[in-house]
Write a structure and sequence with these properties.
Largest sheet: none
Helix content: 55-70%
Distance between the termini: 17 Å
Number of strands: 0
Shape: globular
Number of domains: 1
Order of helices and strands: HHHHH
Number of helices: 5
Strand content: under 5%
Length: about 90
């Protein structure tokens, strides 16, 4: 579960994470069907994608997994940026 910095009840945080995961599922489907270039490249600035494509892919996979589990995860700036773009 992604940690949301608000005074929200746990049930509300769960619902918000489920909605985020609904959007991420779309990008994960593109990734599985079309590859990383079509699935994720548009979510990252060109220089970040060129410098470390694997990190970008790992970031999206982590976000997808984190929105489905029960543990609280604190986002790094790259995770926050990817979520903003989603």
């Amino acid at each position: 579960m992604i940690n949301i910095f608000c005074e929200l009840e746990k049930n509300t945080r769960i619902i918000v994470n489920q909605r985020i995961n609904d959007y991420l599922d779309l990008y994960m489907t593109f990734y599985r069907d079309l590859g990383s270039e079509q699935g994720f490249r548009s979510l990252f600035p060109p220089m970040i994608w060129i410098e470390d494509e694997e990190k970008c892919i790992k970031t999206m996979i982590e976000l997808d997994a984190w929105t489905r589990d029960e543990h609280l995860h604190h986002l790094k700036p790259i995770h926050e940026f990817a979520l903003y773009r989603v």
